[in-house]
Amino acid sequence: MTLAIDPAAHLARLHQTTPLIHNITNLVAMNSMANVLLAIGASPAMVHAREEAAEFAALADALSVNIGTLSPHWVDAMVDAAGAARAAGKPWVLDPVAVGATRYRRESAARLLALSPDAIRGNASEIIALAEQQAGGRGVDSTATAESALGAAIALARHIGGTVAVTGEVDLVTDGRRVARIHGGHFLMPRVTTLGCALSGVVAAFLAGGDDRFEATVAALACYAVAGELAGENAGGPGSFMPAFLDALHALEAGTLTARLRLEVSDAP
Amino acid sequence: MTLAIDPAAHLARLHQTTPLIHNITNLVAMNSMANVLLAIGASPAMVHAREEAAEFAALADALSVNIGTLSPHWVDAMVDAAGAARAAGKPWVLDPVAVGATRYRRESAARLLALSPDAIRGNASEIIALAEQQAGGRGVDSTATAESALGAAIALARHIGGTVAVTGEVDLVTDGRRVARIHGGHFLMPRVTTLGCALSGVVAAFLAGGDDRFEATVAALACYAVAGELAGENAGGPGSFMPAFLDALHALEAGTLTARLRLEVSDAP
Amino acid sequence: MTLAIDPAAHLARLHQTTPLIHNITNLVAMNSMANVLLAIGASPAMVHAREEAAEFAALADALSVNIGTLSPHWVDAMVDAAGAARAAGKPWVLDPVAVGATRYRRESAARLLALSPDAIRGNASEIIALAEQQAGGRGVDSTATAESALGAAIALARHIGGTVAVTGEVDLVTDGRRVARIHGGHFLMPRVTTLGCALSGVVAAFLAGGDDRFEATVAALACYAVAGELAGENAGGPGSFMPAFLDALHALEAGTLTARLRLEVSDAP
């Protein structure tokens, strides 16, 4: 079965609306996430103090929360902000970086998961660990394929009533009912830090104002996959990949996106 | 009326003295601000703990403070450092990022404003919000022209007895008595995160040892405008702009600066 | 006297093992350190909360600690993590950024030094200040040659029973018994922020699983020197240097490393 999904229409809406995206992300990802969001046409803001996080979340068009570098004040602010986003009807995205690595990560992720994110984005190890709420994976990098996390992703999507994206050589997106597989990207992408983290912000940008969270999440990953493929053609290694990727995201047009995209959609098993 | 301002002389002094610039800036800007300051010939240091911020501010040649990502300990350290800089006779610069967005930002900015910065650098929304001490603007990006903030900038400059720089397509600098308009830069600059934040550090670097704060601030913005214009000629998008901009700042010479600069100076209305 | 050191063998082992490197580093260096570690073939993770730092240090293959941007919670977590690394038999590296600049830095460094790092990496000013435990140097940049810190480095290496690396135009490594001098690199490297900080992470990556800490430290600096030299051939300034450097680190092979390396090893005086 193939459902009609038009990522280019979602990209066009993002370009027209320039959504304000509130990010509480890790200290490694801050700069690249801001640049990725600017390149694709959103307006990023990083606001993490408990004194203002909830106020700002209600003001922004969407929120992304990433547990990559935690500390108690930040976790409290993440919980405040996610609660405020929900109360204001704004979508929010959870990125469970290395959730299986320590007890503190599992507990922090559980607090956030209880606030029903509209979308979750992680690698296979993270999605499996989050679904099982048990230890697994050591660091932030995953060697498992996204496909190996399909069952976990579907279960998690049904649990939150939202979408789950698993990134890898082939990316998966599911809302528990449908499954999309997105081909593309480039082998250098896992060698560039925080590209995955920044993608979670991009998912938030596409969710802002989107009616269909599954389609919006697929559109975000589609743009990343095509821009990554294009950047790979101009990169001599992981260092030159990042500038090329930002240039490609910035230049990405509906025609190129549609022509390049390799997307399959099916019913969830 | 045109006053004689020679930005190239200020750049030459910076190159000769390699001023040590103490920055308490936001978490997104840290890396790019350090690279911008190194590229132009200053020596950057980021020191934010209350246990050492005042001691370091007295040691450095100038201080820049940016409220982009706040938390209580940081705000206290900013206040300590600004007070220490003043006590030691060192200039300091305030960058009021997104000051209109939340109550916490307005209150933090008010505490800092009371310590009379030698210069303030922001976009039009921020300068207007700071001058009016009231809510305005949502995020960190501004759509207003710098010119729309002229009245606010002049009022603010007179209030602090220092200079105010408003960046936009055409930049403004005023000390409440004179107004400089600086043309140049590139349309990609607002699509690269923290270029504005880093400029506030550059203003601090030019204020270090400068006799005339208005001229020093104009010189800082002049270098940015010309380097931005040069970088734009070699950039294929916002990703390749940043390396090109750092290369251009590093290579910037008196002759190029003077030949390229488009600067108008007039009396304040 | 020339001892047989084969950095290429150390690089090959790193490529085969992809060690997980736990870094508690400064806020400026986070992103570039992660990219440098990914480029050379390690798996970086930044974990600084006291709630998880010790647990993670025991899990990782090596730890690097950098005092560039301090605050009390972070210093406590650094001490916890270094203690846990020692208890688990994992090597750890100390980077004493600007240790001479403030009392807080000297005290924090003293707490860490008491936990016997396996290696220390700094510039000449930092190594001298750490060895003398007294004030010296203002900022993070050093104008002294590495050679001027030879005596301090040897004393410090004997004190910790580990290796000390002093970076400069010519780099020094000593374990108190032997001294290696490594030529190479590029004059632009001090104009790119946090390249030195990232090198301390690379030293940790080479120490992971290495039997001989002196050889492993030399191997880390050898890769940096050769990659820096190669990057310099393709860089138009400090902005384009960083992407070129990451590309060069990623592409670095045994043959190139061995052919390009200029290394002298002698007995310590």
UniProtKB/TrEMBL annotation, chains A, B, C:
Query: Which BP terms does GO give this entry?
Result: thiamine biosynthetic process; thiamine diphosphate biosynthetic process
Pathway connected to this protein: Cofactor biosynthesis; thiamine diphosphate biosynthesis; 4-methyl-5-(2-phosphoethyl)-thiazole from 5-(2-hydroxyethyl)-4-methylthiazole: step 1/1
What is catalysed by this protein? 5-(2-hydroxyethyl)-4-methylthiazole + ATP = 4-methyl-5-(2-phosphooxyethyl)-thiazole + ADP + H(+)
- The source's superkingdom equals Bacteria
Identify the EC number(s): 2.7.1.50
Q: Where does ATP bind?
A: 121, 167
Q: What InterPro entries does this protein's entry cite?
A: Hyethyz_kinase, Ribokinase-like
Q: Which UniProt keywords apply?
A: ATP-binding, Kinase, Magnesium, Metal-binding, Nucleotide-binding, Thiamine biosynthesis, Transferase
EC category: transferase
Report the GO molecular function annotations: ATP binding; hydroxyethylthiazole kinase activity; magnesium ion binding
Co-factor requirement: Mg(2+)
Q: Which residues bind substrate?
A: 46
**Family, as annotated:** Belongs to the Thz kinase family.
- According to its UniProt entry, what is the function of this protein? Catalyzes the phosphorylation of the hydroxyl group of 4-methyl-5-beta-hydroxyethylthiazole (THZ).
Protein name per UniProt: Hydroxyethylthiazole kinase
Which organism is the protein's source?
Answer: Billgrantia gudaonensis
